[in-house]
Amino acid sequence: MNQKINKKIILLVNLGSPNELKTSSIRSFLSDFLSDKRVVKLPKLLWYPILYGIILPIRAKRLLKQYTKIWLNGSAPLIYYTKSIADKLQVKYQNDDTLVIYAFSYSKPSINEQLQLIENKYCITDLTVVPLYPQFSSTTTMSVFDQINKYYQNKYYLPNIRFINSFYNHIGYIDTIVNMINKYKLADSHLLFSYHSLPVAIIKNGDTYYEECLKTTELIVNKLGITNYSIAFQSRFGNQKWLTPSTETTVRELAVKKQINIICPGFVCDCLETLEEVAIINKAIFMNNGGEEYNYISCVNDNDQFIETLYMILNNSY
Predict the structure, then answer these.
(1) CA–CA separation, 127 vs 178, rounded Å?
(2) What pTM value is reported for the model?
């Protein structure tokens, strides 16, 4: 029996998106996502009738139109950019025994599928897991941790595992965003930071996401040397009390300033929440309320400087 070649694995994990531009694919993605106890903490007996009886039948059809607007090169932007990030990062390790792979928490390829595929070919000696979420949250980062733990719980071996739980304050990440913002000649225009919202109860239970969002913003504006900015939270879902102010309300109020720039430093890859909700819907709200110029600044995506930042993070370089 041939001995497997040893490999060090870097696993990049993102949330996921529908794999196809079809209602069935959107429904499958939403079902996996909204069934995660890390995302929705209601008891299944209460939640599943709502999820499968109301949300999935209605929301999947509506989202098909929204995804159609942003589909990129035959795939969802988040999937496209995650793959590109992995490909570019692999180049950094082309003369090494390291493989860079990617997976998604709620779409294909899954974490389980990717690890099993690699194990069929190689012996994994070291596994570094990088959730592509700059700020830690129990709703995202911990879900990745759960899946890694579940994969190995019935195994009889364990590689050396390293888990990168956030990079919200890494100088490389901050500098990448600052450089992207500087392309927009800010002058006196207002800069709005929009982060994905979370239920307040999760923050009160110890989730550090909110404070890390604030710190990311602080580091960026200090580097830019500006004071004309604000922070808001988007993509609320359900009737719980969520982090405020909402992006929609803030954009409406900022229309009096006539011109704003908006950026989403809580997202690595552009996705439905940035390209459709922020760049299209919120722009319409801004313009309909008297605004004149609305600039959406894209996520870092597969920006070369961000690839270098990931390489720095993986090599403990600041």
Answers:
(1) 31
(2) 0.95
